[in-house]
Amino acid sequence: LAHQTAQLFLDGSTTPLFVDVGAGGLLERNFIRFGDGSATVSGRAQVSRLRWTNNAMIIPLEGGEAHFLHRELLAENDEHINFPFAQRFNDGTIWLTHSIGTHVVNERTVRRWSLDNGQHWTEPAIASISPINSYQLDDGEIIALTAWDQNYTTTHNVFVHRWPNPTTNKTQRTASVELPWSSQLFLHRTMIEAGDGSLIQTAYARMEDQHRFRAFTLRSTDGGNSWVYGGTIGFDPESPFDTGFSEPAIVRLADDTLLALMRTGSPVNVGPLMQSKSTDHGLTWSDPVPIAEFGVDPHVIRLSNGALVASSGRPGVYLLVDFSGTGDHWQEIPVYDGVGSSYTSLLEVEPNLVMLLYDESGFGGADLSIDVPNRLYAIYVRIVPEPTAAAAMLVALCVRRRSRCGA
User: Fold this and answer.
1) How far apart are CA 53 and CA 71, in angstroms?
2) Nearest to 382, CA basis, from 343, 362, 356
3) How far is the C-alpha of 146 from the C-alpha of 91, rounded, in Å?
4) C-alpha span between 5 and 165 (Å, rounded)
5) CB-side neighbour CA atoms (13 Å) of 374
6) How many angstroms separate the CA atoms of 148 and 404, rounded?
């Protein structure tokens, strides 16, 4: 191939295959690109081979496989569709928001929900939903924390929202948060429970005397009623990145370590996706390290099988998979190479089956030499680890005995 580029297009159940023969070749979108280069950023590698079955495109990775099953169109509009944020709850209800319109010009928020694990989508029957910054407690109650304060001060008001369950109207109250410095406050995008039972909320802010953002956490030890400053995930006043560290997302690992991913790029200049870890429930964090060459608004989840999956992009959209569950062995799968906001959401809709939500749009005033239809998609990917030696031996034994082994 002229540019050693293969393109595989997901199109419902038909899933046709196209090959790019170089300049002047196919200019389609929604392709999964496979490079043969080695890792150029710490812990990162791109896939370079695949297998194909009747109902899935299978990408072999170190430690397992990614099975791309199908893609569904969730929304289409004449205006831009951007910024999909989604959260799934224990009963299979999914909350989804996205914007319609041109960013910072006339965009509006659209709210939808699915009461059947993503099979059907309707307008919510309750007054408000907040998939971003939300978390479901053990008793089924949902809590969300919101604040977008551009004022420079040490004391900020945050809004504490509570829903008894995903389909019931919320209550709301205001809490006060004291920060160690005078800054803005932007809450984005993850709330989780740490290993010590505290709630952790990600945030970022530009301090009054600094141009670059600081990524940090807020912390609650009373179930979300009150909040205090937690710890700084990433900040460097001399950072080579235009805007510092922003848009943090965190996940709790099997050993209770917290892992955070952060954006560093600005709307003009691309910056690497950075990672940091905390072993004391978010109070202190390791020095950030790059795990991908670029990325905005990362999202990261831990699956039932222990694997980590992250998504980001700009340009395009990619997945990162780490079968070790440590964040030390990321492998990259480019998913979409066209224009859009590159903001994504990941949901585990059943054990080890991931729904990736992303948009295609003319976001950012891109030079659209090809028409972009302004759509919101969901791609379903099953993350399959390699069987352990013991499991492999059991499977071989079952095959020899022609038994169903635990069916």
Assistant:
1) 16
2) 356
3) 24
4) 47
5) 17
6) 55
The residue among 206, 134, 187 whose CA lies nearest residue 165 is 134
| 293-335: pLDDT as tens digits | 999 999 999 999 999 999 999 989 999 999 999 999 999 999 9
Distances (CA, A) of 45 to 79, 253, 314, 320: 36, 21, 18, 9
Chain-centre distance for alpha carbon 394: 35
Tally Cβ neighbours within 10 Å of residue 148: 11
The pair phi, psi for residue 27, each rounded to 5°, is -120, 30
Burial class, 375, CB count within 10 angstroms (exposed 0-12 / middle 13-18 / buried 19+)? middle
Pairing outcome for strands 81-88 and 64-76: unpaired
3-state SS class at 400: helix
Q: Annotate 343-373 with b (16+ C-beta within 10 A) or e (fewer).
A: bbbbbbbeebbbbbbbbbbbbbeeeeeeebe
How confident is the model over 230-286, as pLDDT tens digits? Answer: 999 999 988 888 789 999 999 999 999 999 999 998 776 779 999 999 999 999 999
